[in-house]
Amino acid sequence: MPEQNLTDSVEFAENPMSRCPVVLLIDTSGSMSAGNRIQTINDAMDEFIRNVKSDTQTSLSADIALVTFSHVIQTHEFTSADSFSPPRMTAGGGTKIALAVHSALDMLEARKAEYRDNGVSYYRPILMLITDGYPEHDSPQDIAEVRDRIMSEEEGRSVAFFAFGIEDADIDRVSEITPPNRPARNIGDASQVSSIFQWLSNSIAKISASNPGERLRLDPIDDYLDY
Amino acid sequence: MTIILTTRSWRAVSVSEAGTAHIRNDVVCQDACGHIAGSSALIACVADGAGSASHSALGSQAAVDEFIDKSIELWNSEMTPADIARQAFDASRNAIINISEGRPRRYATTLLGLIAFEYGWAAVQIGDGAIVVDGRLAIESSHSGEYVNETVFITNLDAEPDTACGTDSLDRVAMITDGLEGVALAPDESGHRQPYDRFYEPLYRWFENIELADADHNLREFLTSERLRSRTQDDVTLLLAMR
Prior knowledge:
A: 7 helices; B: 5-stranded antiparallel beta sheet; globular
């Protein structure tokens, strides 16, 4: 009896690539027009996209959304790295963080539902905030409400929230909405933003290349910051 | 009146092979599997030790061994397959706790088990991987964690396993750990992962015709083939049973 060649006759299913969803939450309030803050962030974001696109697996895995906030919120829906091209950000107006964070979390929830409807598996999403100010236009109630939401999402491991303050950001106030195990960090000069985006692109690369069942540890952010 | 019962015997083969990622990092295969194929009954079990747990290869093997031993022990009792499967699961969990010297998480492993009698079957599962019975998933939506790189382990002591049972008399069973999920499962129209028939059909056809003595070797060749290794670097386990 001829032996069937298993290696050739068994067919393999095609499955979509596991996605790594990332939401960038960028402060575009008036203070960000000082010096070259907003330009630095625009340049850092361009470089971030170039880095993500430079590795095939990372490029296919990354799923990126952008929320900019002053006193108005602008959202840019999730796209792959190849299609990511939001307009260059300009700064002006007051700072309302709470609504921006809610928008970001709502977008993430909707995206996860889309993944599930299409049988796409995904990694734990990253939410990254960059601000130079403090939530001056958010009421204490808004802050409390968004803090509660962040806490419960972090506790349920629904998202990993990283918050960074630049220049004279009121980091204590920003920390009011971050989880206790990962408070907001002041990284100083706006030029450090490019280091943060480096950390982010490397983290996405690491996540998308990780082996199943392996505990994943992201690089410490300190490895990327200048002192 | 004479009643003649004819039973077809089960034939089974089960194989685990280390993934290239493990070989590269000098880590042993952390998957384990085992089966008992009898004239009227089948016991099948696979387990996938956690990548980051130092003793998970021992954990997965201990879990499989205990599941099978306990199932045999309870065989002639009056218990239903569902009760036997659940007790065997609990026995596996306790076995790991007993060998772990107070540190069960070092032995973290998933566990997938199936008992099939003439008059019914039962499946139990904690963690990722799949149990396929007559072409469909035994457990439709196992709670193996929201994220693709995370799963639940038998050593998560407050985690309950998923279970399923049926009174149909099964003909074909397959089990995989998550290393083969990407090639052996595919999403249907509503996004739910289902067994990919064109993966399993050729395997059943092959198994029907192969001498049992050669089955193990051929299956290992397949699981370590370049073609499969290009799709998955993880440990892989495949169990096939038919009658």
